[in-house]
Amino acid sequence: MNQSLAGKKIALLVANGFEEVELTEPQRALLAAGAAMQLISPEQALVNGWHGSAWGHYFPVDGALSTALAADYDALIVPGGFRSVEKLAGNAHTMRFLKGFLDTGKPTVLLGDAASLLATAERAEGRQVAANAYSAEKLAAATLEAESVSKADRNLLTVNTDGEDAVFVDAVIAHIGGDAEGGVAEAA
Fold first, then answer.
1. Which phi-psi region, left, alpha or beta, contains residue 37 (left: φ > 0; alpha: ψ -120 to 50)?
2. Fewest beta carbons less than 10 Å away: which of 63, 111, 160, 186?
């Protein structure tokens, strides 16, 4: 793969219980495209993923959410996993960090359950969002496109990953690379 994202610094925001595949699949593709990534978390030292129906692997945390700044990154990816999303939603630093990306127009990707963070951050109104059942409940006031695999709305890409596994990776790479500005970015 070419180094189309060389020099881009991407924040991956997770808490214990994130969907492992929603972290590892984009991470592999972003590394292959030349991006540098940092795992940001409210957890210290290690964060535990969720794989299928059980706890998964541990991943080293690169930076503390409490001191992370959106200004230090080019893009943000938040993998889903309702356990992780609920922990992140209850953390004021999550809202500060997420709003920093959304409000400055930096590419932001919310995968699966993470789309519900828009409601907590009070940034859902007027946005078109792809949502799974968990997120749809939280985003009742938003315009939902639950049947879509992914939906791009300005600098935000939301991806309904229910049963899709790695099919969303191309849309994530295109969005961060600036190829999916506005409109719908369909992952096939």
1. beta
2. 186
> Does residue 183 fall inside a structural domain?
no
> Domain tally for the chain?
1
pLDDT of residue 108: 96
Question: What would the two tokens of residue 16 be?
Answer: 């214990």
Is 33 within a domain?
yes
Least confident of 3-7, 41-45, 138-142: 138-142
Q: What is the pLDDT of residues 82-134, one digit of tens each?
A: 999 999 999 999 999 999 999 999 999 999 899 989 988 888 777 777 777 67
pTM value? 0.86
- CA-CA distances (angstroms) from residue 164 to 2, 66, 103, 127, 139? 25, 32, 29, 23, 21
Structure tokens at 51: 């794989």
> Greatest CA span in the chain, whole angstroms?
40
Whether residue 98 lies inside any domain: the answer is yes
What CATH number is given to the structural domain containing 49? 3.40.50.880
